[in-house]
Specification:
By secondary structure, the protein is an all-alpha fold. The chain has 12 helices and no strands.
Length: 217
């Protein structure tokens, strides 16, 4: 991961230190989010992919909250929107894998690679259906629909843009060391959020604390 690059001078080695850096309330919210893990983020045979999705969702929610705090926006709304912005992926993956195991899908070669391709293709639509079925708040549904193209969001743009940027931070956090932080600084949403390089640097410095906290979720 890239967290050690931006973790500050003191290496975080315990949950207590992570909480000190990020705050007790965020720790509690991540603990609540963890209740999703056993029900949604559990697909036999796809443990590595699911683990990445889970960590990415938690990191996105934590970064979205920090972004919203910087901008003095609704942090709880941003947190939940980012937490669930890709919820369609694990749910769809679970369905496809279950049908594959029971041989109920009429696809000639429904191997692991094909399932992952279908997941990427259909997950947004599934996420929107889930938002409707679960009667999730409008801002979550709109975030699911528009976080990849924030300019199209006509409502709840704060949540959508915060999630867009937070997802970039999460992807950076869990990629290898060759992933460039410049991708974040240069992302168009940074200007739309009216954030400055010092703001992005400050968010990057929270990476290690966020990664450490996620380990306990």
């Amino acid at each position: 991961s890239n967290s050690s690059i931006y973790g500050g001078n003191v290496e975080i080695v315990s949950l207590q230190q992570a909480v000190t850096r990020l705050g007790m309330r965020l720790m509690g919210e991540i603990a609540i989010a963890a209740s999703l893990k056993d029900n949604i983020f559990a697909v036999p045979g796809f443990e590595e992919e699911i683990d990445y999705m889970w960590k990415h969702s938690l990191a996105s929610s934590a970064f979205a909250k920090e972004i919203s705090k910087l901008r003095r926006r609704n942090v709880e709304s941003a947190y939940l929107s980012a937490l669930l912005h890709q919820v369609g992926k694990p749910v769809l993956l679970n369905i496809l894998n279950s049908k594959r195991l029971r041989k109920k899908l009429r696809i000639k070669e429904l191997n692991k690679e094909t399932i992952l391709e279908l997941m990427e293709l259909l997950s947004q639509s599934v996420g929107l259906k889930l938002a409707e079925k679960w009667e999730l708040p409008d801002q979550i549904a709109i975030t699911i629909q528009h976080w990849t193209d924030f300019s199209k969001a006509e409502r709840f743009k704060d949540e959508v843009m915060a999630t867009c940027l937070a997802s970039q931070f999460a992807s950076f956090l869990f990629q290898d060391e060759s992933k460039e932080a410049s991708d974040i600084y240069e992302h168009p949403v940074v200007d739309e959020l009216n954030l400055y390089p010092d703001d992005i640097e400050g968010l990057l410095q929270k990476s290690e604390a966020i990664e450490e906290l996620i380990k306990f979720a």
